[in-house]
C-alpha cells in the first residue's frame, strides 16, 4: 500500500463525517471521492482513525458488513432507519453519493 498522507486521512475523515444519518457509502465510494487509488486505503484509515466518526455508515460494496462488525454495525444502521435483509444493506436504497 502506498504511503498515506495526513491530507488523505483528513479527506477521508471529512467524507465519512458527511454521510448523513440513514445513508451508507462503500469503501470504494469514499476512495473515489477522495481521489485514492484503492478502497483498501479507506479501510486502513477507518481501522486506525475512525472511533469518533460514524464508521458504521461505511460498508463493503457487497452491502454485507465484515463478520466481526456485522452485529454492531447493523444495529447502529437499523437505529438510523437503514434496514438489512439477510445481513445485506441495499445500496440501491440507502447509498449516499458525493
UniProtKB/TrEMBL annotation:
Residues 10-82 form the Methylated-DNA-[protein]-cysteine S-methyltransferase DNA binding domain. Pfam families: DNA_binding_1 (PF01035). CDD domains: ATase. Keywords: DNA damage. Gene3D superfamilies: Winged helix-like DNA-binding domain superfamily/Winged helix DNA-binding domain. InterPro entries: ATL_DNA_repair, MethylDNA_cys_MeTrfase_DNA-bd, MethylDNA_cys_MeTrfase_DNAb, WH-like_DNA-bd_sf. This is Alkylated DNA nucleotide flippase Atl1.
Amino acid at each position: 500500500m502506498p504511503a498515506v498522507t495526513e491530507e488523505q486521512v483528513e479527506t477521508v475523515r471529512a467524507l465519512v463525517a458527511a454521510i448523513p444519518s440513514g445513508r451508507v457509502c462503500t469503501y470504494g465510494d469514499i476512495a473515489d471521492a477522495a481521489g485514492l487509488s484503492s478502497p483498501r486505503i479507506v479501510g486502513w484509515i477507518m481501522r486506525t482513525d475512525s472511533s469518533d466518526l460514524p464508521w458504521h455508515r461505511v460498508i463493503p460494496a457487497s452491502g454485507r458488513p465484515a463478520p466481526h462488525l456485522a452485529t454492531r454495525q447493523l444495529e447502529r444502521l437499523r437505529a438510523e432507519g437503514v434496514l438489512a435483509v439477510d445481513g445485506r444493506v441495499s445500496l440501491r436504497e440507502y447509498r449516499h453519493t458525493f
